[in-house]
Amino acid sequence: MAKLELRSGLKRLQNRYRLVVMNDDTYEEVVTFRLSRLSVYVTMSMIFVVLVGLTTALIVFTPLKYYIPGAGTDYQSVTALKRLQYRIDSLEKQDALKHQYLLGIQQALAGRGQAELDTNLLRLPDAELISD
Asked: For 101, phi and psi rounded to 5 degrees?
């Protein structure tokens, strides 16, 4: 039973059909094609493969690959970029600390800063003990 269905399926693929393109006004045949289902499937498959191949070649061999996220970069450039980002972050932190330090100095020189006074008593040695 399965062989009959397989053979009938292959027969249907090989049956010939005629595709006629006619002029609507004069009913004159412009073009005639003799086709089978198998030839239509093969032709459509080949067109699909060629289009996929051309699209892939266009992306791989032209600068279009740089517009695809993550596809146009190599490992070395990614690591170099990360290294530069770390350096920029550390430089920004250093700049912020220096700016804060300079503001503190400016406030201290202007007398606006809130400096804590040292109220601890200093115990100085007697002058007599030092001269001996």
From this structure: -65, -45
Q: 90: pLDDT confidence band, cut at 50, 70 and 90?
A: very high
Per-residue model confidence as pLDDT tens digits over 24-62: 999 999 999 999 999 999 999 999 999 999 999 998 898
- Alpha-carbon gap, residue 98 to 100, rounded angstroms: 5
Q: Contact 22/29 with Cβ under 8 angstroms?
A: yes
Contact 105, 111 (CB under 8 A): no
Is the Cβ–Cβ distance between 65 and 57 less than 8 Å?
no
Q: Domain ranges for the chain, please list them.
A: 74-109
Highest mean pLDDT among 2-16, 46-60, 96-110: 46-60
Question: Helix count (H) and strand count (E) of the chain?
Answer: 4, 2
For the chain, what's the residue count? Answer: 132
Dihedral sign of CA atoms 31, 35, 40, 43 in order: negative
CB atoms < 10 A from the CB of 48, how many? 10
- Mention every residue, 6+ apart, whose C-beta is less than 8 A from residue 20: 29, 31, 32, 33
